[in-house]
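Quick review question:
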């Protein structure tokens, strides 16, 4: 199974981290694609490793907010601007897990933009709200 991930650079809440771990243990282990950003991507990377997934990194071309998670070179995709990179994460996976900082959809947010793109592409989306509730 190939799972994509997007989340806020502010990091996940405790409830979101707990729910992400729970969700990942219910799926068949496989690839876990993320954007290597500070905050949620870095946290999710560690959780995915703990749960037995193989992280695939889609780094941004702007390194200022990169987490610099470590993977073997062959698991590192080419650098792209944020929005293009986010689309590649969705395009390469059949399921997206999103952990936004807000409870309601926002217009100027990379996490919510990726969530909208995944919905348009008919990707299966799991939205974990800050309180850990799945929507």
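Suggested answer, residue by residue:
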């Amino acid at each position: 199974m190939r799972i994509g991930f997007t989340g806020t650079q502010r990091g996940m809440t405790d409830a979101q981290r707990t729910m992400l771990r729970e969700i990942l243990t219910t799926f068949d282990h496989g690839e876990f694609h993320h954007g290597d950003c500070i905050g949620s991507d870095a946290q999710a990377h560690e959780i995915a490793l703990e749960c037995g997934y193989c992280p695939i990194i889609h780094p941004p071309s702007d390194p200022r907010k990169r987490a610099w998670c470590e993977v073997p070179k062959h698991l590192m995709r080419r650098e792209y601007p944020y929005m293009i990179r986010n689309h590649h994460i969705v395009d390469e996976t059949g399921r997206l897990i999103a952990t936004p900082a807000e409870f309601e959809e926002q217009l100027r947010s990379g996490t919510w933009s990726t969530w909208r793109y995944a919905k348009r592409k008919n990707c299966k989306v799991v939205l974990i709200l800050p309180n850990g509730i799945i929507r």
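Why it works: The beta strands are 2-7, 31-34, 54-57, 95-99, 124-127. The mean pLDDT is 97.
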